[in-house]
Amino acid sequence: MAPRPQAAVDAAFVAHCRARGLLVTEQRRAIYAVLAASREHPSAEQIHRAVRARLPRLSLATVYKNLEALRAIGAVSDVNSLHEHGRYEAALPGTGVGQPHHHLVCIRCKRVLDLHDRRLDAFRLGAAQAHGFEVRAIRVQVEGLCPSCQMARPSAAVRRSV
Amino acid sequence: MAPRPQAAVDAAFVAHCRARGLLVTEQRRAIYAVLAASREHPSAEQIHRAVRARLPRLSLATVYKNLEALRAIGAVSDVNSLHEHGRYEAALPGTGVGQPHHHLVCIRCKRVLDLHDRRLDAFRLGAAQAHGFEVRAIRVQVEGLCPSCQMARPSAAVRRSV
DNA sequence: TTATATGCAAACTGTTTGCACGTAG
DNA sequence: CTACGTGCAAACAGTTTGCATATAA
Predict the structure, then answer these.
(1) Residue B137 has what pLDDT?
(2) 3-class secondary structure for B58-125?
């Protein structure tokens, strides 16, 4: 929470890259700097646009490659980590799937299960109101490993992804 | 929750379509039937594949058009409703963005704000364990209208989207 | 009969990949 | 010096759109 001076953030970033074996390039630092300075959860294209102000030759492909590289070393996380492609469910009251419920998602096989839990439904507002939001829905997504994926030994990629 | 006989679900679906002015086609019923019968939160392509077993000429475009039409009348909802495109955030401990936190998303302008709320962090397990999941993270996404979007009068599209 | 839905193919958008060149260490 | 990173362009995947044909009501 306490916003650190950007120089300190940059130093920590550089150290983290070195420790994990990534080269430290100007592009990489600039991309991270944009992310660290933003509260906007920007998309790859927004990052590209922002960094381009300083490095006009930066390519979008480099942004993507870096986001992936930084995610792999834990310096960046994706806000909507899972199932980036549309997933749907029946919602008609009467189908038995209409009630409010939450989701249990397996970070390995990407399965999504419904989760019915009274405690989770209990929420209402709170800090959201401080931001002036008019709350319409609360969606809880529990991420973890499903039983069958616990069997298979976790790959390095998965182990570091959460 | 109580899984209704599929005939009853189909009847309710047909009635809902008629009430909202949508024609009742075989494709539409089949698409909905697949969704209502599934606990898998399928993607458009999975739905397409499943329905094709019965209606081999069904096109993928029709699946997409129907998912949108059904979403508009509230018969279907998307599991990952918002920002289907990648959104990132700095995660390096020390940047001030590393701590566990949740997201407040505006369903209209799609802005994503961080939400820090001790009560939300309080969760741990619960029903998830019943499913045998090894829980790694809990992500709470509060959806609503941000202050500036409350000003602008809601469009019909937005009003029905939650 | 007529408004709506379907199927196909082409267009679009976001993301990924291959490769020649550049640069950090 | 050498491995890794960058930029470009082409390839891809998921989704959307335009239009002629088919069909529900």
Answers:
(1) 76
(2) CCHHHHHHHHHHHHHCCCEEECCCCCCCCCEEECCCCCCCCCCCEEEEECCCCCEEEECCHHHHCCCC
